[in-house]
Amino acid sequence: MQTIDLDPALHDRSLDLATAQVAAVRPADLTRPTPCAGWDLAALLAHMVGQNHGFATAIRGEAVDPAAFAPVAGAGLAEWIRSVENLRDARETPDPNAVLLPEISTTQRFPMSLVIAFHTLDSAVHAWDVAASLPHGPGRTWRPDPELAAVVLTSARQVPDGEQRTAPGAAFGPSLAVDDRADPWSEVLTQLGRRP
């Protein structure tokens, strides 16, 4: 995998963008469908919060198994903010060794810069998923700034495609054909099975 030298400020930017979208969710929105097949907005938020806690555990070098990334049922804005604080705290005191991400591989370890890049991708794409699910928000026109979109595209191109993307609970669908004229953010979405 290509090493990505990611400025932590871009990771923070992706978290802030996601927080703004989560903050826009109203209780009546939680049963709305999302771009993630089979997930309503409540399930998407549960997944996002679980991912934050799982990545925080991995970054600290604590014993990690896939259950650390489990969705947090009933998650809302307060739970999201706590998970973001947990993640940022973990980033300040990382394990000096490479990080194990059991959701990706049970044996391969990844350099911290790549782990943060993976999570930046996760946060930015799921921010779009939330925006696209809301009838009163920016919808499918939402996008991060060009700098963040370019970094996320580098990560998106490294996400393995294949049968795992059709498994129940998969956060990313099979990649779609990319239009030659697509801008970087549209390519991110199609790489991860979304229709811009």
TrEMBL record:
Coiled coil spans: none
InterPro entries registered for this protein in UniProt: CHP03086 (IPR017520), DinB/YfiT-like (IPR034660), Maleyloyr_isom (IPR017517), MDMPI_metal-binding (IPR024344)
Region span, Disordered: 158-178
Residue ranges of every copy of the Mycothiol-dependent maleylpyruvate isomerase metal-binding domain listed in the record: 18-131
Listed name of the protein: TIGR03086 family metal-binding protein
Organism expressing this protein natively: Pseudonocardia ailaonensis
